[in-house]
Amino acid sequence: MFDLRLDEAADWIISRGYARVALQFPEGLKSKAIEVSRRLSERTGASFFIVGDPCYGACDIFEYRGTADALVHFGHSPIPSQGDDPDVMYVEAFYEGDIGSHVSAIADSLPHKVGLMATVQYVPGIKRAREILEAAGKEVLVSGGDARILCPGQALGCNSSAMPGEAEHILFIGEGDFHPLAAALGTDVEVTVLNPITGEHRRIADLKDRLLRRRFAAIERARSAQRYLIVVCSKKGQDRTALADSVIRKAVSAGKEAYKVRMTEIGPDALSVYADADVYVITGCPRIALDDSARYSKPVLTPPEAEIALGLRNWDDYIIDEIRSPQSGLK
Question: For the CA atoms of 129, 135, 137, 139, what is the dihedral angle to 10 degrees?
Answer without folding.
Answer: 40
